[in-house]
Write a structure and sequence with these properties.
With 264 residues, this protein is α/β, with parallel strands linked by helices. It has two domains: 5-206, Alpha-Beta Complex (2-enoyl-CoA Hydratase, Chain A, domain 1), CATH 3.90.226; 210-257, Orthogonal Bundle (Lyase 2-enoyl-coa Hydratase, Chain  A, domain 2). It has helices at residues 30-45, 67-72, 81-89, 94-101, 117-123, 151-159, 161-170, 176-182, 194-206, 210-222, 228-243, 246-257; strands at residues 5-10, 13-18, 51-56, 106-110, 114-115, 127-131, 135-137, 173-175, 187-189. The strands form two sheets. The protein has a six-stranded mixed sheet, with helices on both faces.
């Protein structure tokens, strides 16, 4: 079977494409969850990778769960309540955990509908840009279920509790323009320009010293749940690490010598 993720590398930037266009890149297979988890692990183990672009093949970014399997109660939707609970914990919930631990920045290039778990997947990324044809919905309640993969934690932190409540409790969709107004995405571009725009952002991230970028991303994540005092302590520790990195020394030298830095 073809891999769920198509992975391309261009120097320090990796593009990962969800590759089930016939199923609108739905997330319902255990092997897909494991593949994404493994991808995150491999990316973080390679210090030469400085940024990732995540997008979807075909017309959708990710349409969430496979509704036909919900109807048939097969795959991850089968079994007793206890079995279903463990299926989520050991299945799709591997993805938010892997993305939360991923120190390499991820730019989501949202090329089409990001629905349910697909919207939550986009929210796991650090930067989101959308094609003007994209749609977004936290649509679980429309099917009589709840966000099972972290959406209730992710979405309010991005767009605020009031708007997240509106999206989650109605299940209604919003278009790219409204997503920009909500702050769900940072920019909206014509569909044909989306991947190029996402890679340009990833390139700007990758142009910076890799260790500092990874540590800065970690600080942003940890800061969501920490008081100022502990965050300052963590910042001081990370800063001590950063000051001893060769890429920091090269960046300072390049700044003072008014030349582009040369990183390995």
């Amino acid at each position: 079977m073809d891999p769920f993720l198509l992975v391309e590398r261009d120097g320090p930037v990796v593009t990962a494409t969800l590759n089930r266009p016939q199923q609108r890149n739905a997330l319902s297979e255990a092997e897909h969850f494991a593949e994404i988890e493994d991808f995150c692990r491999k990316v973080d183990s390679d210090r030469g990778i400085r940024a990732v672009v995540l997008t979807g093949a075909g017309s959708a970014f990710c349409a969430g769960g496979d509704v036909k399997k919900m109807r048939d109660r097969t795959g991850m939707f089968s079994g007793s309540p206890y079995g279903l609970r463990n299926g989520y914990r050991m299945g799709i919930q591997l993805i938010p955990k892997a993305f939360y631990e991923l120190e390499t920045p991820v730019v989501a290039a949202i090329n089409g509908p990001a629905i349910g778990a697909g919207l939550d997947l986009a929210c796991m990324c650090d930067v989101r840009i959308a094609a003007d044809t994209a749609l977004f919905a936290e649509s679980f309640v429309k099917l009589g279920i709840v966000p099972g993969d972290g959406g209730a934690w992710l979405l309010p932190r991005i767009i605020g509790l009031s708007r997240a409540s509106l999206m989650t409790l109605t299940g209604d969709s919003i278009d790219a323009r409204q997503a920009l107004e909500y702050g769900l995405v940072s920019s909206v571009v014509p569909a044909g320009e989306l991947l190029g725009a996402a890679r340009e952002i990833a390139g700007r991230i990758a142009a910076n010293p890799g260790p500092a970028v990874r540590l800065a991303k970690r600080l942003l994540r940890e800061g969501q749940d920490m008081k100022l005092g502990p965050l300052l302590e963590l910042s001081a520790a990370y800063q001590a690490l950063a000051h001893n990195e060769e890429e920091h020394h090269e960046a300072v030298a390049a700044f003072l010598e008014r030349r582009p830095p040369r990183f390995d």
